[in-house]
Amino acid sequence: MEKTKSRGREGMKLIGAILIIIASTVFGWEFSGRLARRTKQIRYLKIAFESLETEMVFGMTPLPYACEKVSNQVPTPVGNLFKEVATRLESEENSAPDIWNTAVQNWKKRTDLYMSEINILHQFGQTLGLQDLENQRKQIRLAISYFDQEEKQAMESQKKFESMYKSLGFLGGVLIVIIML
Amino acid sequence: MKEILHVLPENVRALTLKLPKDILNEVEEIRLRVNRPVEVRTYKRTYVLPNEAAPFVFSEKESILMMSLLSKHSVYRLEEELKRGYITITGGHRVGLAGRVVMEKGEVKGIRDISSFNIRVAKQKKGVSKPFLKQLHQGGNWCHTLIIGPPKTGKTTLLRDLAREMSLGVKTENMPSKNVGIIDERSEIAGSVKGVPQHDFGVKVDILDSCPKAEGLMMMIRSMSPEVLVVDEIGRKEDGEAIMEAVHAGVTIFASVHGSSLEDVKARPTIASLIDQSFFQRVIELNPHTRQGIVRRLEWKRRNPGVVKV
């Protein structure tokens, strides 16, 4: 009787320990995944801005259509930002910078970007659609060069911390289990 | 008018719409200047929005928004327009701009920081040319015609309607429809947006938008084989020469020129030589006060009397 009871308790302990380890491992994976996603999203932003430049400077496409086209060329979540800007430009009666900024505000929660990238977007938005060809082009180029720097930095931290977060998650779980035993 | 309300910022639009209907229909100009009240002008008088005692002041923020609306958020597409200083919007209305001018290599590159907008309402008055048609037509052909009038007397409006009538033709009067070429240097006759005319011209009209007059006349003759050429505000020496060429090429010319009367425009050498050599057969003088026109017949001498049979 005693024996079966203690075996049951042991079993429960084992299950608990496994659950803890799984949970913390998932956490670790999530953290390292965020790093990888940030790098990817910055890269997509760069691609998006490059095609925006093509549309604006060479295609002379009006801003709403340009954003629409860009949104179809890049995957989510970056595409969503341009999609939202495009629909708002069509439906709302506001200046483009205002629309861009609210869209960025709404959109940033759905990304893994840091404040530094969001700030670049805000800064770019200040003059969106208000300048002549040459200056508009300069603004896009400036944003792209900032994103280049951010991408480099994001890649570095990804390299440094990606595997560390993963193993840290697993080992952290193990540590908790050992302490609780 | 609808197209114009579209480019006004929301609050200005609301105030404009508060004007009585009959005033709205007569609006000729809307002037918006940063930090100044908004003016709405009709033929008779000027109105301040919403009233003169407590005027609404147009702010810088609204001017930015207006630029956004005018360009559909794409000022970068307006390179040419900013160089010329005006934008033609849907409906053929013109928005004149003033602000800080940017130069490059000694040439005007464009306007930035726009501080004044002047919206000129384009009205197509169909039928204004009706009373003149018979007098401008002789033996199945249109006469070379010069329209003279001071600014804002409706020269361009008349020219536009003449072009429409000639392209449609009047069956009852034995006036067949003709191929009409319009050289629209200042995009005023046709009010083209991206090359497409915003006014109704019937079917047989070809337009060279924002093309210099002298070159345009020759280009049209070479490429589009027009029967009638319509051109606005001639005056330079090249224009005169191009018109002579066109007349010799057998094309009928309809032109307009700034001036108060026939005597007045004769003081200008180019026009004087065109009239003295009787290139024009008809002159329409527009009166600024009554807005009516008088048609004068000029004697038409053929300069090539010798007929050579081949």
TrEMBL record, chain B:
Key words of the record: ATP-binding, Nucleotide-binding
Residue ranges annotated for the AAA+ ATPase domain, each copy included: 141-290
Record has Nucleotide-binding as a keyword: yes
A Pfam family assignment: Spore_III_AA
Regions annotated as coiled coil: none
Database matches in InterPro entries: AAA+_ATPase, Spore_III_AA, Spore_III_AA_AAA+_ATPase
PANTHER family for this protein: KINASE-RELATED, P-LOOP CONTAINING NUCLEOSIDE TRIPHOSPHATE HYDROLASES SUPERFAMILY PROTEIN
Name of the protein: Stage III sporulation protein AA
Organism per entry: Evansella tamaricis
Organism taxonomic ancestry: Bacteria, Bacillati, Bacillota, Bacilli, Bacillales
